[in-house]
Design brief:
- About 30% of the residues are buried.
- Strands 7, 10, 15, 16, 17, 18, 19, 20 and 22 form a nine-stranded mixed beta sheet that branches.
- Helix 7 crosses helix 11 and helix 7 packs across helix 14.
- The longest helix is centred in the C-terminal third of the chain and has 23 residues.
- The chain starts with a strand and ends in a 10-residue tail after the last helix.
- The protein is an alpha+beta fold and about 500 residues long.
- It has two domains: about 160 residues, Alpha-Beta Plaits; about 280 residues, 2-Layer Sandwich (BirA Bifunctional Protein, domain 2).
- The protein contains 15 helices and 22 strands.
- The protein binds serine and zinc ion (ZN).
- The site of zinc ion has 6 residues, from strand 22.
Length: about 500
């Protein structure tokens, strides 16, 4: 990797008059030997290859390898030069970056078209050349380093592309009898249990399916969460950017988010034109609205991230661990392009989100207890056929990353069940050990100083229903006695003419 940087310093007085050229030469030489090589292996680092002094202006050209990157060298140099000029009662007023070129070897096949703070990109013969548009402030914010990191990420992402998704079978249940071969969504529509709502991938669940959802929640509560000491909380369902910055979602969630905007002001006058337009056309003027709103975040996507603000910046005593809480207070929203299907793939869905926090061993051990609990519930209540697989951790997938957690300690287990009507397997819940990612991202510490870990498990109510009904039919007589009694009588409220 090569860096070439041209900058100009503007000083408070004439350098050509105030400092002799031999002194400046001496200074630059010294910097080339010491300052710009510090921390780099022998023979590596940065070098001032040219400089010129014209009155108050000093032109600099620095080249480097990846060890002391030219922008680091420039910042070092500015500091040192400031001290040097200070001895001559001259200060540095400002610094302008005229040109900054970064060149590196690059795969021919991987096209880079646009990058932030890069004004031109040249790509030929296995080389990539970036012409940056940066200033001193951006150098100090380490933007060039971040651009290089971004390229490394893109290179890694490309290496995963085309490869099969990570999936490793961990467990298969016994075969179970299936009592249905139709699409349960179609059947529920036919019976008037559900109807597509006004929004995309959104349904209205009638009394029957709602009762089944509530029974699922009670089964989980009574048979899993209560015995394990869980308490219920209410997590926010609007997620501001700050949460997604900390959780990593800000890196990749954009194509799937449901965005939330607030009015730039709630002054009715500011909105009058919009109201008037609607009144005379009966059309909602989207363009006019867009000018008057501000995106402040998105709707709940992964459910657990906004909870972590509860612990933001806190230190917790070791003896309250493990912390075990869950939330079932609202919807999750994902823009599921194309893949929408019945109640199996939705833009708006309902989930019980289970979160546990503890020391590493506690979190891993607790995940095992949950896994055992789930298996019991699937065998005894749902009587479904399912399998469990080790997959790309959800928190990586949601950041747009591929790959598998190397150790079988941190990562996600997906629970999948076959849908007899299509023969396809549907993921209906997961259990994840998230390592120290969340405590770190939200600066949560343990009194003893030991590492804090966490895990989470999302139970999709629509997905449970899709699996149960697809395998066992909509007829409660075909369900286990335990499930039947948990659900109770299916209510008949509506009739249509
Ligand atoms: N937060 C996890 C996920 O989004 C579990 O629900 O998959
Ligand atoms: Zn979660």
């Amino acid at each position: 990797m090569e860096f070439q940087l041209k900058a100009e310093l503007k000083c408070s007085g004439s350098v050509s008059e105030g400092v002799s050229s031999s002194e400046i030469e001496e200074f630059m030489k010294h910097c080339n030997i010491e300052l710009l090589k510090k921390g780099a292996p022998p023979g590596c680092g940065a070098e001032i290859v040219r400089w010129n002094v014209r009155g108050e202006k000093i032109g600099l050209e620095i080249v480097s390898d990846r060890f002391v990157r030219a922008h680091d060298a420039l910042l070092r140099l500015k500091n040192e030069f400031g001290k040097f000029l200070g001895r001559h009662r001259i200060g540095i007023r400002s610094m302008e970056i005229e040109d900054y070129e970064i060149a590196m070897d690059w795969e021919e096949g991987l096209a880079i078209k646009k990058l932030p703070f890069v004004r031109e990109i040249k790509q030929e013969e296995g080389r990539l050349k970036l012409f940056l548009a940066v200033n001193e402030f951006l150098l100090e914010k380490r933007i060039p380093d971040r651009i290089i990191r971004l390229l490394e990420d893109k290179r890694e992402a490309a290496s995963w592309k085309g490869k099969k998704e990570h999936w490793e079978l961990l467990f298969e249940s016994k075969k179970k009898p299936f009592y249905f071969d139709k699409d349960p969504t179609e059947e529920m529509i036919r019976l008037g249990w559900i109807r597509h709502a006004a929004g995309r991938g959104q349904w209205i669940y009638g009394p029957q399916l709602t009762k089944i959802f509530r029974a699922f929640e009670h089964i989980i509560l009574d048979n899993l969460l209560e015995p394990l000491g869980y308490e219920e909380m209410i997590f926010p369902k609007f997620v501001p950017w700050d949460v997604w910055k900390r959780s990593g979602h800000a890196k990749g969630i954009y194509p799937e988010a449901y965005y939330v905007c607030t009015p730039k002001t709630r002054d009715p006058e500011f909105w009058e034109e919009v109201m008037d337009y609607y009144k005379v056309t009966n059309e909602v003027p989207l363009d006019m609205i867009m000018e008057r709103i501000e995106p402040v975040g998105g709707m709940c996507y992964a459910q657990c991230p906004p909870f972590w603000i509860f612990l933001l910046g806190k230190t917790i005593p070791d003896e309250i661990l493990p912390i075990t809480v869950f939330d079932r207070s609202g919807t999750s929203h994902r823009y599921e392009s194309g893949g929408l299907h019945g109640i199996e793939r939705l833009d708006e869905f309902h989930r019980v989100e289970i979160v546990w926090i503890g020391k590493k061993e506690q979190v891993i051990e607790h995940a095992k207890q949950l896994q055992e609990g789930y298996r019991r519930i699937f065998d005894e209540f749902l009587e479904i056929e399912w399998r469990e697989a080790w997959v790309t951790p959800w928190f990586m997938a949601q950041e747009g990353k591929a790959g598998l957690a190397e150790l079988k300690e941190v990562g996600t287990i997906d629970y999948e069940a076959v849908l007899p009507y299509s023969g396809k397997w549907l993921e209906f819940q997961n259990v994840s050990v998230n390592g120290d990612k969340y405590p770190k991202g939200f600066s949560v510490k343990l009194q003893s100083g030991e590492e804090l870990w966490s895990g989470c498990s999302g139970v999709g109510l629509e997905r449970w229903a899709a699996v149960l009904l697809a395998q066992k039919s909509l007829d409660p007589d075909k369900w286990s006695a335990k499930l039947r009694s948990a659900v109770g009588e299916l209510p008949e409220v509506f009739r249509f003419l």
